[in-house]
Write a structure and sequence with these properties.
Number of strands: 7
Distance between the termini: 94 Å
CATH class of the largest domain: Alpha Beta
Largest sheet: 5 strands, antiparallel
CATH topology of the largest domain: Beta-lactamase
CATH architecture of the largest domain: 3-Layer(aba) Sandwich
């Protein structure tokens, strides 16, 4: 890649290996959103996934790359011109849900007026949009996979003179806010049910377990066990989920399991009022 692509195209600060970028002293720190906060995060690398989100570059090289794609940059070997032109031609036999067609690494619309592609890993995200007819190309490079990539379209609006833009949170950010809020609510409810169970145990003498109470206790206990198994599966078996997504997925499940356990205790501690006849 370095000898046959990057150097001939003049992309001297584009790397395939993280160690090369680190040696240059310019590799950005990656971040992630978790529990309402954005914190530094060094995710493991998936070497086999390099084309999808592990090629490292900078704004200067990406600007040149986009200029090459639009034919503005001319000082490149002739062989690349034909390859690039062909790479913009989509397979019109199959389209995705947005009506875009797959080209050689690009997504293009039917009349090839929009050429775009996104990429990412747990630390970084990228969005590239090329508008050939407008002689405009935009590239969004962000060191947080939680960034809303539609931000690149907001930049286009600003270039067109529409300055009244606002940032909308991404799906990942919304998920983190929702699950983090659920974690707090479940923990508070768990404490409440636990204290109510203690209060019942202290205020009433122990009564025989009724069939209805046994059934309710067993159901709650089974739900608690199922939730604990789900926590274990996500935490250990499907740990990749926590690399790519927010940690609040696991905290929400743990707090829900804790809540279910406290509800089980509350139901078990319930005392039935006995009616005695003389």
């Amino acid at each position: 890649m370095k000898e046959q692509v990057f150097q001939p195209l003049g992309l001297h600060r584009t790397y395939v290996y993280k160690e090369d970028a680190q040696a240059a002293g310019q590799l950005a720190q990656g971040y992630r959103s978790s529990f309402f906060m954005t914190t530094p995060y060094d995710a493991p690398d998936y070497a086999g996934n390099k084309p999808a989100g592990y090629i490292i570059s900078c704004t200067e090289d990406m600007a040149r790359w986009l200029g090459i794609q639009m034919g503005i940059v001319q000082d490149i070997p002739e062989m690349f011109r034909k390859v690039i032109e062909k790479s913009h031609q989509g397979d019109m036999s199959v389209s995705d849900v947005n009506g875009m067609f797959y080209a050689a690494g690009w997504s293009v619309n039917s009349d090839q007026t929009i050429i775009e592609h996104s990429g990412g890993n747990p630390n970084f995200a990228t969005k590239v949009v090329i508008l050939p007819n407008e002689r405009t190309a935009l590239c969004l490079l962000t060191n947080g996979a939680n960034t809303n990539l539609n931000l690149v379209l907001k930049v286009k609006e600003i270039l067109d003179g529409n300055l009244s833009q606002s940032y909308e949170i991404s799906g990942t950010q919304f998920l983190d806010i929702t699950l983090s809020s659920a974690t707090i609510i479940c923990c508070l409810l768990a404490v409440l049910f636990f204290l109510l169970g203690l209060r019942r145990r202290k205020m009433n003498e122990r009564q025989p377990m009724t069939k209805k109470r046994i059934t309710a206790t067993v159901i709650c206990l089974i739900a608690t066990v199922v939730l604990c198994i789900m926590c274990w599966v996500i935490g250990y078996v499907w740990s990749t989920i926590l690399i790519w997504q927010t940690y609040s997925i696991l905290t929400a499940l743990i707090s829900l399991a804790l809540l279910m356990a406290c509800i089980t205790w509350f139901v078990y501690a319930r005392q039935d009022n006995a009616i005695f006849r003389k």
